[in-house]
Amino acid sequence: MSHSTRLHLRQQQMMAALLAGDQAITEHIAGDQNLNAEQRLSIYQSGYRLRLREVIDNDHPVLGSYLGDDLFEQMVDGYIEAVPSRYRSLRHYCDPLPEYLQQDSFFSQYPHIAELAKFERSLLSSFDAPDRDTAAVSSLQQLPPEIWPQLQLRFHPSLQLFTSYYNSVEIWQAIKAEQRPPDPTPQPACWVIWRNRERLTEFRSAPPLEQRLIHSFFQGDNFTTAAELTAAEVGEATAAAELLNILVRWLELGWIAQLTDEAAPPSLKEVE
User: Fold this and answer.
1) In whole numbers, what is the pLDDT of the chain averaged over residues?
2) How would DSSP label each residue in 33-75?
3) 55, 61 Cβ separation under 8 angstroms
4) Rounded mean pLDDT of 179-194?
5) Is the pLDDT of residue 272 over 80?
6) Selection from 246, 134, 254, 153 nearest residue 194 by Cα
7) Mean pLDDT, residues 6-10 taken together
8) Assessment of whether the complete model's pTM goes beyond 0.90
9) Which of 67, 101, 180, 203 gets the highest tally of CB atoms within 10 A of its CB?
10) Domain spans in the chain, listed from the N-terminal domain onward
11) From the centroid of its chain, how far is CA 76?
């Protein structure tokens, strides 16, 4: 067996020890009078789990506070067993956590918990989104009138829609403010999440018309379609003014990266 083959085998055995508790690698670990091979391996196995626990704790501080110590430990132990780390960056290790909470026999009884985890991950995703300049309100004055019907919006990469079916966001807000969280209740809502110009993550609820318009622009629709959606909601007499007000507000909030008449593929970013 070549040196590179032996090295690859040892690496596989070490990963099996960390991920599945396999002890085959102990034959190749030297012990001494202080620690035998099994004890030395145990240090690495414990360190691996502690590091993953730290990642979950850091990524989901509000979820951890909401669950309390015992339930948080139950979630962490179950998640580490069910979802071994397969990512080069631990930043993405908890991406499947909401799905795990939805499927776990215990936590699935409380669907607002998975939703709370999903909301925290959405905040992280917006915070980590790529940098991109945003368009200014003054850019509207530079648009030739003839391109308005075909005008499309390119949103900032951090912007996403988050759909909740319970009052999970209100629970998150109360815990963040160190207040007693409300009892979980069904409460469908839609939220816009984005990273502002000061690189702080923000969110706010989106009324139905705004939801439809964002969804439409995400899908690659143009200003003509947006005008039709607005007219159906508020009437033709006030549709133009309402749509312009919404567009100005989005520009002021830093949601829009570009105004263009060039078609682009859909880029839907919704979290449900």
Assistant:
1) 86
2) SS--HHHHHHHHHHHHHHHHHHHHHHH-HHHHHHHHHHHHHHH
3) no
4) 98
5) no
6) 254
7) 48
8) no
9) 101
10) 1-109, 113-272
11) 19
